[in-house]
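forwarding from the other thread:

> can someone predict this with 2-acetamido-2-deoxy-beta-D-glucopyranose?

sure thing
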Amino acid sequence: MAFINIAAKIAGISASTILLALVVPFLTNFPTPLLTSFIGGFPLPDYPLAVPFKFFTNTTTSTTTTTTSLSEDNNDDIPFTCDVSHRYRTELVSLDPLIIYIHDLVTAPEITSLLRTAEPAFAPSSVTKNGRQLQTQDRTSSTAGLPRDDPAVACVLSRTRSFLGTMLRDGWDEMGPPQLVRYTTGQRFNVHHDWFESPRWANDGSMRTWNRVASFFATLQDNCTGGETHFPFAKPIAPPSPWGERIWNGGLTRQKEEGEEVKPLWREHEDGGLAFRPVAGNAIFWVNLHANRTGDARTNHAGLPLVDGLKTAMNIWPRQYYPYE
Ligand SMILES: *[C@@H]1O[C@H](CO)[C@@H](O)[C@H](O)[C@H]1NC(C)=O
Ligand SMILES: *[C@@H]1O[C@H](CO)[C@@H](O)[C@H](O)[C@H]1NC(C)=O
Ligand SMILES: *[C@@H]1O[C@H](CO)[C@@H](O)[C@H](O)[C@H]1NC(C)=O
């Protein structure tokens, strides 16, 4: 320690800087230009953040985009334009693990455009077990990957990136490739977690690993009965109120009419935990990892079977990257 302090005085820098250098040897000792290129203003190997960022760093385009997006539903020829002024509303559901309900995260024109892009790509879903991609009866839905440079995809990614704030470090972490998932009658996804038991290799030559630090699950199509998203181990801050919608729509909406059926957005499930009803445009956000980077088993969840109809949702999995250790 004395040596470090003396060295620091000589060098005219703080001891903590040197300590940082000592505990993060990969930053200083690694000679390859490959690794050092991750520090500072560098291009991300997997995902150009410049694409989504432009949508929320420059809000001057919002007036023109609103008009274009409104006509999107009726006119296939008008290219999608991101409504950077779109506003959504959040409600805390659980603090530990953190679960947040997001109203109106995805707009109707975005849903139209996302579905149009993904429609030809739907294929049977797979799961990762022991590091391998498998198709199993645990997950009977179909899945479609989404190109991140598609304007509607980039638009939703920029909004969700913005939501995350400093949970992702600019130029180091990234949003990960999103996918759409579709359930029809009888299809389900048994209890699973979105995080990986051990971080995955980045496969981009960067000598990094990553894990899914959090998840957004946004419903795009909700014409179904059943199909709730069930977190068997989650506990709410407070149980849902008998007032239902009045409370769970933020207390801002009208009161319940006489004899009106109120459908709460989520409920306490009879087998324990919380069950979220699919509502198009709305999303659930939760944090997958503990601070020590291990997976939080309380975020385990299931896509309950669809009794009838069709449910389509968007998975967004922000990735946190770790240096090779
Ligand atoms: C924001 O967008 C406007 C209109 O497209 C453009 O004129 C302006 O240069 C942009 N500003 C920045 C900081 O990119
Ligand atoms: C990581 O943190 C969680 C929550 O505090 C704890 O339960 C778990 O035992 C920790 N795991 C390790 C390997 O430190
Ligand atoms: C919704 O689902 C029902 C039954 O599954 C079906 O009859 C109806 O046509 C669907 N509506 C739309 C708009 O897809």
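Residues 1-74, 244-248 have pLDDT under 50 and may be disordered. thats all i got for now
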